[in-house]
Design goal:
Elements (H helix, E strand, L loop, with lengths): L3 H14 L41 H8 L4 E4 L4 E6 L4 E8 L6 E9 L8 H10 L1
Antiparallel strand pairs: 1-2, 2-3, 3-4
Length: 130
């Protein structure tokens, strides 16, 4: 027990000599450069052969081509028109070119009534002939 007291005193003295590691502020990452919509170039619209007569048209022009749609679904940011004929079902998707601009066709999808995909250009041509 006599020896325990001096050993405890030495341990306490040594513990006082050890310092805690320095607290460092985390390295600051540079803020990412802010990009505005204007800094991005406009996304090119790739028009597949046979879709030229539809892509870029507004809803009125599409209705003149195909008649009244079976469905006219207004979405938050766009619109979907669906035209149905014996050979196929054509879904036409319209979105604004930019904020506040008119909605134009940006994409079309075509299928048979059983859900099988069909050539979009062939469907457009078939529905225009009716």
């Amino acid at each position: 027990m006599k020896h325990a007291l001096p050993l405890t005193a030495i341990a306490l003295l040594l513990a006082g000599c050890v310092s805690a590691p320095e607290a460092r502020a985390p390295a600051r990452q540079p803020a990412p450069a802010e990009r505005t919509a204007a800094s991005f170039p406009p996304r090119p619209v790739i028009v597949a052969r046979g879709l030229e007569g539809v892509i870029g048209k507004d809803a009125n022009a599409i209705k003149r081509l195909f008649g009244e749609p079976r469905l006219d679904v207004v979405e938050v940011n766009g619109r979907k028109l669906q035209f149905v004929g014996k050979p196929c079902i054509l879904d036409v998707f319209l979105y604004p070119e930019r904020k506040g601009a008119r909605e134009v066709v940006t994409y079309v999808d075509a299928r048979r009534s059983d859900g099988a995909a069909v050539d979009r250009a062939a469907c457009i041509e078939a529905l225009q002939r009716r």
